[in-house]
Design goal:
Layout lengths: L2 E2 L19 E2 H17 L2 H10 L4 H34 L1 H32 L16
Antiparallel strand pairs: 1-2
Helix pairs in contact: 1-2, 1-3, 1-4, 2-3, 3-4
Length: about 140
């Protein structure tokens, strides 16, 4: 088990409380990365499991698991809204409903994937990952 030193937070990155990055163990980085990658394939299930297991052990892993879970839950709700809009449009024309619904869901998935990959990169650097409030509701903290 190796522990990365706690450097000063880089000037361009969001700082942790106190202005320094906490000491991060390799296991915490692995858990945070696993939470983000699990969200790509299984939605909020894997990040919620990581959050439940690591919440008391590591503030670093808890933060990243909560961020991944918040993003995947928010995107699941947006996906439901896209499906409703597509379904309502399909009442008039199935072609229009499918084109609009599939396009919206694909754009949402690409956006979620972008922020999850940024989260993986931030977790591997030992940094915070700030996701804009317009796409991600703060459900878990």
């Amino acid at each position: 088990m190796t522990i990365k030193p706690s450097p000063q937070a880089p000037s361009g990155s969001p700082a942790w409380p106190g202005g320094t990055v906490p000491q991060v163990r390799d296991g915490d980085v692995t858990s945070a990365t696993f939470g983000y990658l699990g969200a790509i394939f299984l939605g909020p299930v894997i990040p919620l499991i990581v959050y439940a297991i690591m919440a008391r052990r590591s503030s670093f892993a808890r933060y990243h698991a909560a961020t991944a879970a918040n993003l995947s839950i928010s995107c699941a709700l947006y996906g439901l809204c896209c499906a409703i809009v597509g379904g309502l449009l399909a009442l008039d024309s199935i072609t229009v409903g499918l084109v609009v619904g599939v396009t919206l869901i694909f754009a949402l998935w690409v956006t979620m994937l972008r922020y999850l990959i940024r989260g993986v990169a931030a977790a591997n650097r030992g940094d915070r990952n700030e996701i804009p409030g317009w796409i991600c509701a703060r459900i878990l903290t």
